[in-house]
Amino acid sequence: MSWLVLSGLALAEDPETSSEEEPSELQQIEEKIRIAEALIRLADAEARLAEMEAKEAKVVTDEPAASPTEPAEVSPPEPPEPPEPAEVSPPEPPDPPDVVVVREVVAGLGDTRIGGDLRVDLFADRLDNLHPEVAEDPSLAFVIPVARLSVDHDFGQRASARIELQLAQDQTSTSLDTSDGASVAVPAAPSGWSAELLDAHLAYATPRGGTFTLGNARLPFGVVDSYEGGGFPLPGPALYLPVVVGEGLLPQRSLGLGWNGGLGEMVRLDVNLTNSSEPEVEIPKDLSLRVAVTPIEALTVSASVLAGPGTGGATKVGYEGVAFVHAGPNRALVEVYGRQGLGPTSLGAAGHLARDFETGGAASRVTPVVRVSWFDPDQDTPVDHHTGAALAIDTAWSDSGVSTNLGYEVVVPDDVDLAIEHRAVLECRLQF
Questions:
Q1: CA distance to 220, 233, 403, per residue, from 324 (Å)
Q2: Fewer CB atoms near the end CB (10 Å): N or C, the chain?
Q3: What's the rounded Cα separation, in Å, for the pair 380 and 143?
C-alpha cells in the first residue's frame, strides 16, 4: 500500500507524464507539505494496524486449546476454611489517675500544682581573731536551711491561689567571753526547728486592669523575684536570700493587699499596702511602691520605696535602687539599699555576676556566681561596717530537679578587733 501511494506521488511530480503546466515555486512547496502530511498519516495508520494485530495474536495464544473429544473437568469449589476464633483477652485495668486530674474532676475549678524546695547543707565555719581562747579550727555541721512545700491552684483563667510552708533549722551562735573582757560570737550547730507560713494569698488578673493579690505574699521590692528564684544561686542558710532580706531591712513576706500591672510595654508598677513590722504604732500599715523600667530587652532598672509610721512618731523609710542586666546566659546586678527612721540609719550596696554554661552531659548546666557586698548598719557609729564576698558554683544535674552548689563566703569587719568570718558550704538542692 505504501508503495502504491509513493508511486502515484512520483508520477504526479514527473514533468514528462504531467500534462499540466509547470507549477510555480510556491505551489511546489505547498505540494511537498501535503505529501509530508500524507506520509505522516500513513505511518500512523500502519502503527495502529500493527498494534491491533499484536493484540489479536496475544488473545489467541492466551486461550487454552480445547480438546474436541475430552470435556474439560470442572471441579467443585472447595469450601472456605472456617475463620480462627479471635483471642479475647481480659481488659487491662486502667492506670491510676493523677492527683491533679482527680482534683480537677472532683472540684471542676481548674488544676492544682504541687512544688517544693529542699536544701541540705554541710558547712564549715572558721573565725580569724585576736583571742587565743577562741578555737580557729573549722566547725562542721549539717543544716537544712530551706524545706518548702507549695500548692498552686487555678480557678479558671483569671483567679488563682497559692499556699507555701517553710520548715527550717535555726542557725545560732554562742557568745564567748574572753579573759580580756571581750565577747566573741562563735557559730554553733543549729538547734531547733521553725515553721513559717510564707505564702497564703489569692490573686485575680483583670482583663486590662492588672493583677490584685490579697493575703500573705512576697513583697515586690528591688528585684527580689529576679534572684531569689535562682538567677544568682548561692548556698548557705542566709546567702540564698536577697541582701535586703538577709540584712533585716525587709521582711521575707508581708500580709496585705497588692496590685501590679504594666504601663505600656516598658514600665511595670507594684503597689502594696501591708501590715507593719511595728505593731505598737497607731496605724500599723506600710505602703510600698516599686517602679521597674525596661528601656531595652537586656536591661531592667527599678526603684523601690517602703514607708510607714515608726516608733516615737517617726516615719520609717526603706529604699532600694537596682540595675539588672540580663543578656543571654550572662547576668549582672547592682543594687543600693538603705533604711532610716526606724532604729539607726543604714546603708548598703551589692554587686552580682552569674553566667550559665550548658554542658549537655550528666551535668546539664554549670553556673558560677560571684557576689560582693558592703553594709553599714549604723552610719552614726564609726568602724561598724563590714565587707563580704561570696563565690559559688551551681551545677544542675540533667532534668531531675537536683542541683549541687559549692560556695565560699568571707565577711571582713572594719573593726580589727572583730573576727573575720569564713564559711564553706556544700549544698544539695531538690526542686520539684
A1: 15, 15, 25
A2: N
A3: 36
The dihedral built from the CA positions of residue 282, 224, 233 and 243, taken in this order, carries a sign that is: negative
Q: What is the domain count for the chain?
A: 1
Quickly count: other Cβ atoms within 10 Å of residue 348's Cβ.
21
pLDDT tens column, 133-175: 656 566 777 888 889 999 999 998 899 999 999 888 876 666 6
Average pLDDT of the chain, as a whole number:
77
Task: List beta partners, residue 279.
Answer: none
Query: Domain range spanning residue 267?
Result: 111-431
Residue 101 lies in a domain: no
User: Where is 167: in which H helix or E strand?
Assistant: strand 159-169
Which cell goes with 382? 564609726
Residue 40 within any structural domain of the chain: no
User: 88 exposed, middle or buried (CB, 10 Å; 0-12, 13-18, 19+)?
Assistant: exposed
Q: Which CATH number goes with the domain that contains 360?
A: 2.40.160.10
Angstrom distance (rounded) from CA 250 to CA 274:
12
C-alpha distances (whole Å) from 2 to each of 144, 365, 408 are: 109, 88, 107
80 burial level (CB within 10 Å; 0-12, 13-18, 19+): exposed
